[in-house]
């Protein structure tokens, strides 16, 4: 059977028809009109109608870059999208005639990795998405952990540095401000502005605003010491943050996805080192492997579609 999976992100919205085994049958991508919630609904419904074609899917699952209530009906808060206490599931249901459930995008990604990806042989996983921000999801003994309000697993907003950098969530010093693509480019830009990196200066042609995380990763792969240093620093902070998650939930495995994870071992190796140095009982226990995600950039869509199966069972 087929379900619709949707991933509403801070820049793009991806919609796909997904089979029970996680295979994508058809998909369509549109830009997310982030400044206007009503336009986001229009763009999403338009894309859903487009992928539906002749096949009649059973239900719709939507992964959204924001906090979703425990029942999967409402977007509580989405700092990068124009949604606050918005009944998105009901609105999409009315427009399409299909049952709809919402989930946080990083949580939907974790579910995809648990069902079809790097965590498919495990019962308990922590999956972390290092992208523009830092998201997370927890599956414990086969159960997706939503918490009392639906907001569990938010590793990015663990208070990390007292009175640290301001975060989009309204707090100060959240881990996301130190472990994300955004933090990586911020540090890289400072290197260029202070004329401390010949490689990066060249890569962005002297305009630090043009710098991307991918340029840093390319530099690190080419052996540039400063780019390697940036990824090493990010990896260490990530590993330390993971030790907090693992101390709390003790998973079988930790899965790392998101755009920054394309750096692969350049990110994971320092993360493993810092993790092993920080996690509780490291010498007396088995450490969970820290591995790369396998479901790719469509993971949130695939996970959301699979979660929608729960509506029709
Ligand atoms: Zn925060």
**Global structural class:** alpha/beta
Major β-sheet profile: 5 strands, mixed
CATH architecture of the largest domain: 2-Layer Sandwich
- Output the strand order for the largest sheet: 3-2-1-4-8
| The CATH fourth-level homologous superfamily of the largest domain | ATPase, nucleotide binding domain
Q: What's the CATH first level of the largest domain? A: Alpha Beta
Number of helices: 9
User: Average pLDDT across residues?
Assistant: 95
Bound molecules: zinc ion
What is the approximate shape? globular
Number of strands: 13
State the CATH topology of the largest domain: Nucleotidyltransferase, domain 5
**Alpha carbon gyration radius:** 19 Å
- Count of individual domains: 2
The proportion of residues in beta strands is: 15-25%
Distance between the termini: 11 Å
Proportion of residues in helical segments = 25-40%
Low-confidence stretches: none
Walk me through the structure.
The protein has 313 residues and is of the alpha/beta class. The chain folds into 2 domains: 2-111 and 297-312, ATPase, nucleotide binding domain (Nucleotidyltransferase, domain 5, 2-Layer Sandwich), CATH 3.30.420.40; 121-293, Nucleotidyltransferase, domain 5 (2-Layer Sandwich), CATH 3.30.420.40. It has helices at 37-52, 88-96, 105-116, 181-193, 198-203, 213-221, 225-249, 265-278, 299-312, and strands at residues 2-8, 12-19, 24-31, 59-64, 67-68, 75-78, 83-86, 99-104, 125-130, 134-140, 143-144, 253-257, 290-292. The strands form 3 sheets. Strands 3-2-1-4-8 form a 5-stranded mixed beta sheet. β12, α8 (265-278) and β13 (290-292) form a beta-alpha-beta unit. The radius of gyration is 19 Å and the shape is globular. The chain starts with a strand and ends with a helix. It binds zinc ion (ZN). Zinc ion (ZN) binds at residues 157, 167, 169, 171, 174, 176.
């Amino acid at each position: 059977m087929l379900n619709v999976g949707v991933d509403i992100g801070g820049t793009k919205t991806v919609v796909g028809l997904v089979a029970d085994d996680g295979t994508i049958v058809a998909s369509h991508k549109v830009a997310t009109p982030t400044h206007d919630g009503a336009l986001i609904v229009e763009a999403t419904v338009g894309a859903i109608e487009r992928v539906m074609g002749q096949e009649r899917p059973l239900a719709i699952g939507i992964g959204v870059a924001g906090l979703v209530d425990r029942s999967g009906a409402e977007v509580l808060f989405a700092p990068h999208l124009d949604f606050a206490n918005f009944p998105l599931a009901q609105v999409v249901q009315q427009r399409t005639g299909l049952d709809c459930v919402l989930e946080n995008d990083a949580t939907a990604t974790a579910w995809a990795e648990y069902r079809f990806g790097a965590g498919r042989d495990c019962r308990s996983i922590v999956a972390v998405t290092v992208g523009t921000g830092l998201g997370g999801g927890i599956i414990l003994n086969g159960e997706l952990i939503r918490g009392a309000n639906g907001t569990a697993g938010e590793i990015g907003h663990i208070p990390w540095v007292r009175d640290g950098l301001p975060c989009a969530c309204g707090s100060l010093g959240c881990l996301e401000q130190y472990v994300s693509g955004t933090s990586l480019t911020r540090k890289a830009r400072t290197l260029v502005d202070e004329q401390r990196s010949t490689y990066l200066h060249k890569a962005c042609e002297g305009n630090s605003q043009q710098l991307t995380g991918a340029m840093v990763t390319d530099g690190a792969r080419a052996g540039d010491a400063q780019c390697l240093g940036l990824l090493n620093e990010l990896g260490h902070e990530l590993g330390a943050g993971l030790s907090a998650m693992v101390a709390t939930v003790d998973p079988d495995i930790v899965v790392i996805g998101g755009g920054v994870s394309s750096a692969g071992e350049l990110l994971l190796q320092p993360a493993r080192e810092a993790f092993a140095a920080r996690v509780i009982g490291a010498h007396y226990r088995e450490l969970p492997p820290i591995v790369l995600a396998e479901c790719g950039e469509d993971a949130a869509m695939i996970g959301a579609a699979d979660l929608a199966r729960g509506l029709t069972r």
